[in-house]
Amino acid sequence: MSLAFDEAPVGQVLQALASWQQLNLMVAPGVQGTLSLRLEKVPWQQALMLVARMAKLSVETEGNVLLVWPESWRQEQLHQQQIAREKEQNSLPLIAEVVTLAHADASTVNNSLLAERARLMTDRGSVTVDARTNSLLLRDTRLALDATSRWIRALDVPLEQVELAAHIVTINEESLRELGVRWGMRSDEQIARALRASQFRVALPVSEAAVTAGFTLARLDGKLLDLELSALEQENKLEIIASPRLFTSHQQAASIKQGTEIPYEVSSGSRGSTSVEFKEAVLGMEVTPVVQANGRILLKLHLSQNVPGRTMRSGEGEYLAIDKQEIQTQVTLKDGQTLALGGIFQRQNASGQRKVPLIGDIPLLGSLFRYDIQQQKRRELVIFITPRLIRDE
Asked: Which Gene3D superfamilies did the record assign (predicted)?
């Protein structure tokens, strides 16, 4: 069709379009204004949409009737419908319902509910947390209560339980090498890479360091770990310092500490009074397991090694420094696989004397029947962690 209008009323243009298709026309109040247009051989539907867009109108065809109304009129109609729905909602009675949670924490679920409340509950609805019974007291209309209860039940699921079996041992170089070979690490390079050659090892800032601190990670097959460590302990090749067994949940931290506390004096008040406080010098490990969908376990590790350092002197006395090293990392393991953390070395110096009884004590001559012994023992502190999923039978 082709159209040409100059400052024509909108109603007249609509009448021409309706006549072209032989349609009846109904125009709502508020359709006003003028249009100038010139269209040559355009489809009727396109011409109608162009006119409606320019005049800010909404159009709809119902049978053989063309309905036209202003966009503002339609918005007002929707607003009135919303008011009517709200009035109907406000007339509905409020019902109270108690939802007792079996697994999730009520306060945590309530915090999540606050973000979804506008879509689940009405403006008159309310939520009260009862920490004593781990319950949520809901008060709202029946329809809103059903939607909110379903949403809460979807969150009330048990977390995956994880058992963390740890062994903290000290072991000499030969036994460490032997243990690595038994686990299938055939070459010296693999053993060194797994448990010895730490990229994080640093020498402590003392003149004669007795401890070198560092951390190395290795993934090992831990099925025979307990048997191997027990056998080596029976042979006096290692010493098991601690074997804690912890139970925790998905994304819940578990911590292990091994060490001592160092006392020091703290001045307080203007009269010069002092009090004794303690500072930890421990090997600390915090593990947060994250159970993944494929059955693997992601361990978030926070390790710290605090050891007594050099003694610092000042005018008021002596102070003992604490050398500190920390590392944070993440390692993914299979269920039952063992993580080995090594690279913390301890060196012990021992001196003694061997002699022939009586004769060795004779001056001058006794030196031929006695000799001094100097021994240096180097041991490594190794931590083994084995996470296992606890499955309900």
From this structure: 3.30.1370.120, 3.30.1370.130
Q: Is the pLDDT of residue 266 over 80?
A: no
Q: What are phi and psi of 171, to 5 degrees?
A: -145, 145
Q: How far apart are CA 345 and CA 327, in angstroms?
A: 17
Strand 370-390 and strand 95-100: pairing? unpaired
Indicate whether 221 pLDDT > 60: no
Cβ-based burial of 17 (10 A; exposed 0-12, middle 13-18, buried ≥19): buried
Alpha-carbon distance of 13 to 47, in angstroms, equals 10
Instruction: Kindly list the structural domains of the chain, giving each domain's residue range(s) and its CATH number in brackets, ordered by start.
Output: 3-88 (3.55.50.30), 92-155 (3.30.1370.120), 165-171+238-390 (no CATH), 178-233 (no CATH)
Instruction: Give the CA angle between residues 71, 77, 79 to the nearest 5°.
Output: 105
Which of 298, 301, 381, 376 has its CA nearest to residue 334? 298
Q: Which residue has the higher pLDDT, 296 or 373?
A: 296
Q: How confident is the model at residue 303 (pLDDT cuts 50, 70, 90)?
A: confident
pLDDT over 90 (residue 29): no
Contact residues for 282 (Cβ-Cβ < 8 A; gap 6+): 257, 258, 259, 260, 261, 304, 306
Least Cα distance to 48 among 97, 10, 100 occurs for: 10
State the DSSP string of 112-148. Answer: HHHHHHHHHS-TT-EEEEETTTTEEEEEE-HHHHHHH
pLDDT of residue 128: 92
Given a contact cutoff of 8 angstroms between Cβ atoms, the answer to whether 94 and 70 are in contact is no
% of the chain beyond a pLDDT of 90: 10
Phi, psi of 55 (to 5 degrees): -90, 0
Collapsing DSSP states into helix, strand and coil, what is residue 228?
Answer: helix
